[in-house]
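[Q] Does anyone have a clean structure-token version of this?
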Amino acid sequence: MVAIMIMRSVARWFVLALMTLMPCTSAHAERIKDLASIQGVRVNQLVGYGLVVGLDGSGDQTTQTPFTIQSVISMLSQLGVNLPQGTNLQLKNVAAVMITAGLPAFAKPGQNIDVTVSSMGNAKSLRGGTLLLAPLKGTDGQVYAMAQGNLLVGGAGESANGSKVQVNQLSVGRIASGATVERAVATPLGQGEFVHLELNATDFTTARRVVDAINLELGGHAAVAMDGRVIEVRAPADSDQRVSFLSRLESLNVVPAPSMAKVIINARTGSIVMNQSVSVDTCAVAHGNLSVIVTTEPVISQPGPLSAGQTVQAARSQIEIHQDAGSLVMLKGVSLAEVVKALNSIGATPQDLLSILQAMKAAGALRAELEII
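[A] Here you go.
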């Protein structure tokens, strides 16, 4: 037994020595807690419908949102207030809303969770409103929490005489600790003698490194990679020991595999994001701007004196075409910073980069995966 312990200590020392002698790279160690999650430990989504009252005339226009009136009548009947048939309610201080929340893992009855309240009608603002008691249900139709409270809206706005000023969103609010958990969701912490770690991203190299780190810490073959994402680990059966065991695993440091070279392009906004692994082969990029300017001016034609003619308005358009001198820049197997610097040197805007990067990818010069969202 002593010999086995000595061999394990020597193995750990040897691995640490190799890591010390390895050349420094941009990769850095991360906790398993940041790279993976425990299978089954998850947030459950809740949704509900309710009414927000106390608005300062900025609620739903009841003529266009009949469901608001129906909800108010139904609520009043449950409170013992029966309205005569055909009552025409004209409400301006009430808004129908949808309520969303996330039920954390291991949440118990009596705990509070935050909720988000969003207008589903045509209310102008939820600022200053109060959410009435509303049930929050899961996908199984069961009630898991009850929400109620005063809304906090981060926006502001005013309008007068056709002018309007608005800052941020007025139709969405949040209630901190606005819901009370009424039903717990069973969260199995592993099945049988095993727990499963799920990597945040599928990567075979990272999965192998996590397995090696766990086996080095625990000894033997406690961890086995099921695939490029799931890792099975043998864990104690006792719940208290299992929690301590998982806490120990989460604190282990692992150097993840370098991320795949990738370029993300948002064609709608012109945003481009590249990671540090992006590089290019030798290529030449030419860039030139072509702009077309169309201007239209009204032209008034006046009739002659005593001609009984009418004044006629026409339009005169002028078209101008300008083309800037093209620039040529040579790129050679450079890093991300040099790619950005070189493309900026020829005056390429984000919209220009969309076409340039696509052309570089088609030419085989861009060493990265190009994804357009």
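[Q] Thanks! Anything notable?
[A] The two ends are 58 Å apart (CA to CA).
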